[in-house]
Each structure stands twice: as C-alpha cells, then as structure tokens.
Amino acid sequence: MLQSRIAVFASGQGSNFTALIDAQNKGNLGGGRIELLVSDKPEAPVAQRAKEAGIPTLLLRPKDFASRELYEAEIVAELQRLEIGLIVLAGYMRLITPVLLTPYSGRIINIHPSLLPAFAGKDAIGQALEYGVKLTGVTVHFVDGGMDTGPVIAQRSIAVEDNDTVDSLSERIHKVEYELYPEVVGAFAAGRISLDGRKTMVREM
Question: pTM to 2 decimals?
C-alpha cells in the first residue's frame, strides 16, 4: 500500500472533503491523491461533490449488513484492492471497529473542532461555549479505538470572543480546518509524519 493513495470517509456536506480536493488540484497535497470517497450515507451531499470532482465512491448503508464488522469488511476489501495507504475521516459519523483499525493502524486520521483532549465527542463547539473557555481550536489526530483519544498530530488555537455563538465560532473553526487538514494530509502523503507510541513527529509542515 502507498501512503500517497488516500481514501476519504465522510457522512455529510463534505466541506473538508472539498478543501482536500482543492488542495490536491493546486498540487498542495504532498504528492497524495484521493482515490476514493467512502460514505455510510449514499444520499449525503458529499457523494455528489465526489461525483463532480471525478472521485470514485463507495456508498454503503450499514443497515444493509448484519453487523458493523461485516460492513467494514466490505470497505476494507475495496481499500486493499485500491492499495489505499491513508484513511482521512472528514465528518464520518461512525465509531470504527478493529476490522478497519487493525489493518490500518497508524494510517487513519481525523479532525476535531477542539483542542483535544478537551471537549471530545459530539458538539465540541457547544461544549466549549458552555464551559466558558477563552481558547478553543482544531486538532488533527490519529484514530484509535476510543472517542477522539488517538495521538495528536497538529493543533491550532482560536480565541473565543465574548459575543460568540455556535454559528460564529463554527465559522472561524471551519476556516482553520480547511487550512490545517490539507497540510497534515500532505505531510503524511510526503512521508513527513511518523508515530512512536503516543508521540507524533512532524517534519516541515
């Protein structure tokens, strides 16, 4: 498998997916190439975005399978057929089982709208506002068996303003996501990211 061959997993609108496609088109993905979009929601707008970009898709409904493991086994078979080396989660709203985690250990990354380990899980932006923090941000991390618990690759902070709402803070966070995620994916594709236990080494990102 080649780390420059990328599969993006997404369940929704696909804004981070679009940012990655834009980076690829500009030659800013470290030589990486998105070879596949995987979605658990065939009707999601991200599937149409992939079609418009000429990216092959694998659209599977989990309820059509007897178990999560069988659903993921179907995905793994396609990833291996395409020799995918990096899985990029971009709004993929499912916990991953060992069926996918084991063969792709250290090669699955995710982006989360907080400075992990703070505000893991759902509604991270709402959690930050409710808690009253003055700084939040964006984290790109490796995926392990927990909920947003994998080793951190990169983080960027964002100030929380006194008059912020979920919408206003989300808008600023998304702008940072669209910059940071392609940078990290490009660094991985170029072989500039390595993992030793929980310590991540990133060179020249």
Answer: 0.94
Length of the chain: 205
Tokens for 66, please give them: 């007897």
112 is catalytic: yes
Q: CA-to-CA distance for 132 and 51, rounded, in angstroms? A: 41
Longest dimension (CA), the chain: 51
3-state secondary structure of 29: coil
Element (H, E) at 196: strand 193-196
Report the alpha-carbon angle 30-138-144, nearest 5: 75
- 8 vs 197, higher pLDDT: 8
Catalytic residue among 112, 141, 173, 185: 112
Nearest to 157 by CA among 131, 130, 139: 139
Measured CA to CA, the distance from residue 48 to residue 45 in angstroms comes to 5
Of 141, 143, 56, 132, the residue nearest 98 (C-alpha): 143
Helices (H) and strands (E) in the chain, counts: 6, 9
Q: Chain centroid to CA 64: how far? A: 24
pLDDT digits (tens, 9 = 90+) for 32-67: 999 999 999 999 999 999 999 999 999 999 999 999
